[in-house]
């Protein structure tokens, strides 16, 4: 699975909150295996749009579409 490059405003947001390293680690895991246990990938409700998320840390989640 490939991730498109993030917008500059999102990258700045990650840097301001000291999440850039966590993002890179999780991005690497996601690209290798979308169902890696440490990502805690889940399908969000309602299920029909196909919106998923994985955990960046306890406070932040990343949304993605399949």
What does this structure look like?
With 66 residues, the chain is of the alpha+beta class. Helix content is 33%, strand content 18%. The chain contains 2 helices and 3 strands; from the N terminus they run H-H-E-E-E. It has helices at 8-16, 20-32; strands at residues 42-43, 51-55, 61-65. It has a 3-stranded antiparallel sheet, with no helix packed on it. It starts with 7 loop residues before the first helix and ends with a strand.
Gyration radius, in Å: 12 Å
The share of residues in helices is 25-40%
Inertia-based shape: globular
Amino-to-carboxy terminus distance: 10 Å
Average pLDDT over all residues = 93
Written as H for each helix and E for each strand, in order along the chain, the element string is: HHEEE
The number of distinct helices, counting runs of at least 4 residues, comes to 2
